[in-house]
């Protein structure tokens, strides 16, 4: 067995010790912490005050005393977490806590998603949460924010990931639906119930047929209908007859794959829309008939372009191919390192078992 | 299949995409059938060759491929390598990292393959130029297929059987006849589709083996087979399934992978002149020295070698343990009942047998009641077999894997509890998941590696273990990770023998994961001593 060649990754903490300064944002057992303000960003354990980037379960967890997030995300996390104390802010609105200026900026990941900018004594940090650079027509498009230190996800931080334009992928999806319909089959399309499902829904071609939804997706879509113009959908309930679904499309969360629920759609073809579908193995492993490469995260070029646009010197990679990505960034001359977090990126979207199934 | 008018590489790439985007056999066969109906003749021949593992020789080694691909993608080589570890397939990695094509290629599949054959002999600079030019001209899927052809490993979930079925549909020629035509040593560069598939080829007859008849594992209890008088039983030998052909004073040895391996086993040259012309025997190639059958592991030294030295021939001689006769006096006798074929084989054997002659007979086990067969199966490990083969006395010799007349009835596997120590990413379907594991047993206070296993867990379990591995990695060595010794698995294997080639001193046969022992702590895993105690004395 050959030992992997190892480049020495500069240790962030050592740098800071030399500067004798606490970092503005630090990673502790609860989450990303700003000690000066006593504020956590997307914490994974219950805390007093949580600034939340977006509504996915690995970023907005249950049990915090106070949630602060973008206005649009408020109904989303209320729907997911129930009775919580939450206040909403606008993009670019500054909230000052003990001298630290916080503001939310569009991340383009899903509707209501933000990056969080943190400024103290002229030093600027940005935490991306999850983000993508392509305008999906639903969420406010990503905007690069100038900073000194950039805490970024890198779910798809490998040169093997290159996304095609959304329009092209949606054309493929609609063509697939049309072909299935002509073959007398129902199309069952899997996408995470918050974000991906609505992105798919928005661009499905209703001239082909009707759109049916799994309960989890219908519930979330109902929450978002006041904010976005979506085509009509029909919830699959016990009363919906098998015959009426035939040839139409059904949007379902990934967890519905292989469940008894799906039997109602027979005969059907399955499709899945995710960045992971770029890999032939990922699709075959999940026994999906058709994979569409469509992600709400940045691809390789998207990550590199975003980093460049921030003008940052320091980078912390939180989730995804962190070690590989930070090694590459170091070779490019950045001061990059990784941090352990409990964020899951699109893995959560693919394999999550915690999705509600009502 | 779309764009029926397009007769080039795009068509083949579309076929591969269609095969690759479904797990339904009927859809795969339909896509192949359509291809065989519409593709150009020369492309069809190459498609058949590629799908039956008759690939052109690899024109460029993979080290150069990786280097040149990373150059074209403008990424450092280490990053290409990391991507490859994660993607799990070299051709796929190349196809993914190379920038999207702006040009177009109208070349045919056969043109690409023939260029690759020429390419092998060209200087490195020309090879690089050729690859860079074509990678940039092909779209993602064409690039993937093109690179697959270069790397030479074309596993896309289509068996030769499926391909043959589609070919039968497209040509309306009987599937078994086609299977026979596709066997043997034909050169896709020289043969036409007409000659290979449509015409009768008398001259190819000389070396041609018959398609092997394969057995399924017995599903029900042995008593469900009915009357024991109707069944023949023999031991299931653990070697290389082979057909040995003597025709026109020439010898041909075929392995089950349809590989002509005559040169690797010069022992059988003795058959010429002794075994009459027009004889084809089906049997198991086994290591045999000092009057005893060896273990499969001994054969490894013979399988890999191209040049068989005298020393090796002396150290690990092989025999054919024959169990069926498919051709006798130049006549195909596969339709005769097994009982008759067997009688002819036994007659042949008793006529030619002599001291040191490398032909043995797989003895028929006589039994009147199933209990006697059960008792004989219990002796399998003692006689170095894997269990029993049950064959219906009145059955013909069929083509391929068929249920009903032949059953394999293996002994229950041996099992031992071992600790997971290393993990590697899987390939193909399991790329991006850690599914290839190394297991260790206790030797005092140390854990000693004894086996690797890749199968036996459900997809859900693999995902669970994969996620554990990612959180419990101690060290990374390229694609391999050492993990915290914590998980215990019950490992099953078919056979066990002492081995100097293994660190543990023991070689196991077909190790696989039997189940995840979530109830056990590592202290409760077995020791190397426990394992050695299983070696038959």
UniProtKB/TrEMBL annotation, chain A:
InterPro entries: MBL, RibonucZ/Hydroxyglut_hydro, Xnuc_lig_assoc
Listed transmembrane segments: none
UniProt keyword terms in alphabetical order: Ligase
Gene Ontology molecular function: ligase activity; RNA endonuclease activity
Annotated NCBIfam families: Xnuc_lig_assoc
UniProt name for this protein: DNA ligase-associated DEXH box helicase
